[in-house]
Amino acid sequence: MKIGLFGGSFNPIHEGHLKIAQFAFEKLNLDKLIFIPAATNPFKKNKKYAPSSDRIKMIQLAIEDKPHFEISEFETKRGGVSYTFETIRYFKNKFPSDELFFLMGSDQLPKLNKWEYIDEISQKVQLVIFKRSNKINKINAKKYNAIILNNPIHPESSTSIREGNLIYTPEKVNEYIGNNYLYASEILHNILKVDPARAKHCKQAAEFAAELAKTVKYDAKIAYYAGLFHDVAKRLSESESREFMHFFGLDAYDKKTYPNFKLHQICGALWVEFVYKNSNRDLIRAISIHTTLDLELNTLDKILFIADKICQGRAFPGVQKLRELVMSDFEAGFKAVLKHNYDYNINKGITFDNEALAIYKKWMD
């Protein structure tokens, strides 16, 4: 039997991994291919990985309709740094009579000679190189008798996904990422990298929301991520916001229904639901009304509004007293924060429409 071995962090698995695996499977006439997620990469010891259980689950979702693909938990169950020679010894002992093909990216070729026991590895398995660029280290390829695949070069990368380009993941993997809040902080900070102060505010709002949630026995995790993502769309211009809304089927150019001050909260909710693919309705709703509120509010709606207005980083006379009040008397604190926000806007000369006035009147009374 001809068996492909495909190791890597798969943090997370993406369409490029699947295309490469399928290409190798067909070109090498393999009988099966085994994905081997690493515990820790020896060349990336300081890199933060999603938990191995999550990375394994994402691989399972990605290959569930591909019976010729399998997963091995050898490296993740063993833990520690994953060294290829140990993995190769394990599989050679497990499949002593089979032909093993070890798949690796061309970016690994220049440092292949630095791998521990590389001579042993190259004798026990057939090294197979897939191209990640058109630059190939032919010296090491020849030295270790590697097969070089003439595969298409794919743009997908795990790094790109962790930066927010979630379209590169299979749909079910994207949904798993969103519903388990994977890579949330990394994605948020990349999206807002041009506005680090905004990213910092989001983190501060998240932390305050989580602490406040505990005082009212609300799920602190949900509150945290509502705070983290509440301003995710703040970077968008008006035209970009309306284009984004239009893409998802809203009548975005109706400025009466969607005035400018509502855009970032609506776009933020759309991003969480349709890009990050989180399905928590309360979280999505809270983000969608976090500046304007509504005539009907639940606990999370109030938590997020409060956190946005008085978290650490907000500095105005009386803010500390408001923080203390919301922690000791949630409802009274919410009314006080709302009243402060109302007075602040009135003093700025802002005129409220009838909808906003009705909301303020209901919740301040």
Layout of helices and strands:
Layout: E1 2-8, H1 15-27, E2 32-37, H2 52-63, E3 69-71, H3 74-78, H4 84-94, E4 99-105, H5 118-124, E5 126-130, H6 138-143, E6 147-148, H7 158-162, H8 171-179, H9 184-191, H10 196-215, H11 220-229, H12 238-247, H13 263-275, H14 281-288, H15 299-310, H16 319-328, H17 330-347, H18 354-364
Parallel strand pairs: 1-2, 1-4, 2-3, 4-5, 5-6
Helix pairs in contact: 2-8, 4-5, 10-11, 10-15, 11-14, 11-15, 12-13, 13-14, 14-15, 15-17, 16-17
Enzyme class: transferase
GO molecular function: ATP binding; bis(5'-nucleosyl)-tetraphosphatase (symmetrical) activity; metal ion binding; nicotinate-nucleotide adenylyltransferase activity
Family: Belongs to the NadD family.
Task: Write a brief caption for the model.
The protein is an alpha/beta fold and 365 residues long.
Low-confidence stretches: none
In percent terms, what proportion of residues is strand? 5-15%
Q: Which word captures the global form?
A: elongated
Largest sheet: 6 strands, parallel
CATH homologous superfamily descriptor of the largest domain: Hypothetical protein af1432
Number of structural domains: 2
Order of helices and strands: EHEHEHHEHEHEHHHHHHHHHHHH
Q: Which strand order spans the largest sheet, edge to edge or round the barrel?
A: 3-2-1-4-5-6
Structural class: alpha/beta
Classify the fold: give the CATH topology of the largest domain.
Answer: Hypothetical protein af1432
Annotation, overall tally of beta strands: 6
Number of DSSP helical runs? 18
Average pLDDT, to the nearest integer?
Answer: 95
> Roughly how many Å apart are the termini?
76 Å
